[in-house]
Write a structure and sequence with these properties.
This protein has one helix spanning 11-14, and strands at 20-23, 31-35, 38-45, 49-59, 65-76, 82-87, 91-95, 100-106, 134-137, 145-147. The model has no long low-confidence stretch (mean pLDDT 92). The chain is mostly beta strands and 154 residues long. It is built from one helix and ten strands; from the N terminus they run αββββββββββ. The radius of gyration is 16 Å and the shape is globular. The strands form three sheets. It has a four-stranded antiparallel β-sheet, with no helix packed on it. Strands 3, 6, 9 and 10 form a four-stranded antiparallel β-sheet that branches. The protein has a two-stranded antiparallel ribbon with strand order 2-7. A hairpin with a 5-residue loop joins strand 4 and strand 5.
Length: 154
């Protein structure tokens, strides 16, 4: 069995209770994102060691959500409210009119990224996995955001 590469339909993943999604309204015009994509996620965990994973997706007119780019950052001191700065892969992508832009947020993306055990042990040799509860904040005091380098129209 080979590894599946390329664009993947994310709907099954996005239905999980441990994955947050935020989706725009239907786009009235093509939107080009070109360059460095990043996210500032206000986050807190029940453990001091946690990851924040962010994925940018394109949702077509049939509701199929496909990955555009993503990134993950590991945190220490995650048991305090903190601003996680996540650098996603740079991209050059056109979201078509009639599509929507979606952002996924979770605290991991195994097997794409190795698991964070929650213990502080090195990822490659960790032997214990601890479950954790995570919170993402998006209010006036904690303005979580995704920063998209949108190309201005002609």
């Amino acid at each position: 069995m080979g590894v599946k590469a390329g664009r993947v339909d994310n709907r099954k993943l996005e239905a999980r209770p441990d994955v947050l999604t935020y989706t725009t309204a239907v786009l009235e015009q093509d939107t080009e994102v070109i360059g460095e994509v990043s996210a500032e996620i206000w986050f807190c965990s029940s453990l001091p060691y946690a990851d924040v994973f962010v994925r940018l997706c394109d949702v077509d007119a049939q509701g199929r959500s496909t990955n555009v780019c993503d990134g993950l950052v590991g945190l220490t001191g995650a048991d305090e409210i903190t601003r996680a700065e996540v650098r996603l892969w740079p991209t050059a992508y056109r979201f078509r009119r009639g599509h929507r832009i979606r952002v996924q947020i979770s605290s991991g993306a195994f097997p794409r990224y190795s698991r964070n055990s929650g213990t502080g042990e090195p990822r490659a040799t960790a032997t214990t996995l601890k479950p954790a509860d995570q919170l993402v904040f998006h209010d006036n005091e904690h303005p979580s955001a995704v920063i998209l380098p949108v190309r201005a129209g002609d």
